[in-house]
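As agreed, record minuted below.
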Amino acid sequence: MNTFPGLDYLAIFVGGTCAGIMNAVAGGGTLVSFPILLWAGRDPILANATNALALWPGSLAGAWGFRREIVAFPRLLRFLLPAAVIGGLVGGCLLLATPSKMFLLFVPYLILFATVVLAAKSALARLGRGSTENRSGAHAGLLFAGQLAVSVYGGYFGAGMGILMLAALGLYGVTDFHERNALKNLLSATTNGLAGLFFIIAGAIRWDDALALGVGAVVGGLLGAAIGRRLSSRVLQGVAIAVGVVATAALLLRR
C-alpha cells in the first residue's frame, strides 16, 4: 500500500462514504472504515482515533438529514446529550491508555455483543412500551446511565455504537425506527465529536487520512439520510445485524 499512496487515500475515501451511509441508515460505519485504515498499514490506536474524528462530520450530516424527527424529542435529549458528551470524553481517555494489542483483542467481542443486543430488540422493546415524553425520573436516570455506557464504548471504539443506541432507544419506548435513527445520528455525532476533540489535543490524529475519510463520510451521511426514508424498518434493522455478524467474523479470522 505504501508504494501507491494515492490508492490508500482513494480506498479510505470510499470507505468513508460507505461508513457515512451506514451510520445514517443503521449504524456500524466504523466496521467498514476502521478495517480499511488497518489495511492501509496504519497503527490501530491512531487509526481508531482518526476514524472517530473523521466520521463526525458524516454523523452530523446524517443528523441534519433527519432533523424533522429529532425535534420531536426535546425532553428526551436533555438526558441523552449530556451522557453522550461525558461518555465520549471518558471513552477517548480509555482508548489512548490501552495498548494496541489489547485493543485489537477486545474489538470483535464488543461488536458481537452489540449485534446480539440489536437482534433481541423486539423482546427488549416490550419492556419499555409507552410514551417517551412521559417517563418517570427513575426511567430517565436509567436512560442516562445506559446512554453514558454506550457513549463510553463509542468514544473507545465506536463500531456498533449506533446499534446499541438503537436498541436502547427501542427499550425506552421510541418505537418508530426512523425516529430512533434520527436520535442515534445526533448522539453519535456528539460522542464522536467530543472524543475527536480529545484525540486532537492528544496529537493522535493522522490528518491526511482524516481528510479523505471525513469528506467521504459527509457524502455518505447525506446519501444515507435520503436512502433511509425509502427503506422499511425491517430492512434497516436487518442491515445493522448483518454488518455486526460479518464484522465479528472478519476480525476473528484476521488474527
Residues 79 and 144 are 6 Å apart (CA to CA).
